[in-house]
Amino acid sequence: MLKAVTNLINVSQITGVLPVVNGGTGVTTSTGTGNVVLSAAPTLSGDVSLSTGNLIIGTSGKGIDFSATSGTGTSELLADYEEGTWTPTLIGGTTNPTVTYSLQRAKYTKIGRVATVECYLGWSAFTGGSGQLRLDGLPFTVSSAAPNTSSVGALMNMNGITLASSRTFAAMQAVGSTTYCVIRNLGSAVNGTTTDIPSTGATGELGFTISYVAA
After folding, report:
1. CB-CB contact of 105 with 119 (8 Å)
2. Which of 211, 214, 177, 208 is nearest to 195 (CA)?
3. Residue pair 141/212 in contact by the 8 Å Cβ criterion
4. pLDDT in tens, 129-140
5. Cα dihedral across residues 18, 19, 23, 27: positive or negative
């Protein structure tokens, strides 16, 4: 009986985290919140399920490492996911126009370094401006590395914009090291010209989606 009491007293005096090799869990639980703090570099076996809450990455640049899978890539770390909105605007390659917008609706999803943007833009008045017609405001700067400088997305709608002569269709192109897209005219030549600023007073609309690698 006395031996059992002595053992109980010794156990109650144990402090700190009991390692797994000594029969413990290797974790500590903060008081009042229920958060579990893992000891340095623990190894878990089996599936991990979250009944409530989220898996939160606490340090920028960290994420889910898929290096256990086969592949020859330079990185297998998924370190970013993001959704949001952005504000598209029309600008000129030489001088910017004055635009009265009837609609500026745009969203984006970013997975790793790849950003996919959707945009629907409408305008009721367009005055001045010159040079190449550009749609500015992309949520992330486009990478300068090839083949990103020719990342092309589909145009879903385009009114009030005239294509270059002999070009029969167009696509949006994200320009490397910038935050804007241009309208690339295609047709008789694979590498088509870009579209210039519309005529003064023109109304129109533009809708597109494009994926590109962020810088």
Report:
1. yes
2. 208
3. no
4. 999 999 999 999
5. positive
| pLDDT at residue 15, as a whole number | 63
Tell me what pLDDT residue 86 has. Answer: 98
Following DSSP, what letter does each residue of 136-188 receive, concatenated? E--SSPBP-STTGGGEEEEEEEEES-PPPTTEEEEEEEEPTTSSEEEEEEEES
Q: Which two tokens stand for residue 150?
A: 């020719």
- Residues 102 and 121: their CA atoms lie apart, in Å, by 8
Beta-bridge mates of residue 169:
186
211 closest CA partner among 174, 157, 182: 174
pTM of the model: 0.78
Largest CA distance in the chain: 101
Mean pLDDT of 190-206: 80
Q: Is 107 helix (H, G, I), strand (E, B) or coil?
A: strand
pLDDT, tens digit (0-9, with 9 covering 90-100), for 32-82 = 456 666 667 788 888 888 888 898 998 999 999 988 888 788 889 999 999
Tokens in use for 81? 């996911």
In this predicted model, what pLDDT tens digit does every residue of 80-110 receive, in sequence order?
999 999 999 999 999 999 999 999 999 999 9
